[in-house]
Specification:
By secondary structure, the chain is of the alpha+beta class. The chain has one domain: Aminopeptidase, CATH 3.40.630. Helices cover about 45% and strands about 25% of the residues. The chain is built from four helices and four strands, in the order βααβββαα. Strands 1-2-3-4 form a four-stranded antiparallel β-sheet, with helices on both faces. The longest helix is centred in the C-terminal third of the chain and has 18 residues.
Length: about 140
């Protein structure tokens, strides 16, 4: 597949089936790349259930990368106690790795963060650092 960065879109709203698809992708990809089994898939499902159950639109965020309505990658930011947050479930499918997707996401998040609160800017800064690390 010949895909360029311009072909990828990023949405920040969950649709029906997204969470199940993320569980499936983690199960299949982590089995293939790391030999993980159903216990890992169950762990991911549990974490996504926790995210959905405690979802707060002012503190939590999802980034769904798509190519022609097909999942290309996913990451979420989940709020925690004491005004902290956790980035979880960062995954980019192999055919979309190495095209600069992390850089595109950083630029979009930087533009979104202008005019937002200091806490939101800190979340964006942290997620940018994680994306940069994960895409290296």
């Amino acid at each position: 597949m010949n895909v360029s960065l311009q072909d990828i879109s990023i949405r920040t709203e969950l649709k029906a089936g997204d969470l199940g698809h993320v569980v499936l992708l983690h199960g299949l990809l982590y089995q293939k790349e790391y030999g993980y089994g159903p216990a890992f898939e169950s762990y991911v499902a549990g974490g996504l259930h926790e995210f959905h159950k405690n979802y707060d639109s002012t503190k939590d965020r999802v980034w769904i990368c798509e190519y022609k309505d097909q999942f290309a990658g996913f990451m979420l930011l989940m709020h925690r106690e004491n005004n902290s947050a956790q980035l979880r479930y960062f995954i980019i499918l192999p055919e979309f790795r190495g095209i600069g997707l992390g850089a595109k996401d950083r630029a979009r998040k930087r533009a979104e963060s202008e005019g937002q609160s200091e806490n939101q800017n800190e979340r964006a800064r942290l997620s940018n650092a994680i994306v940069r690390f994960a895409s290296a």
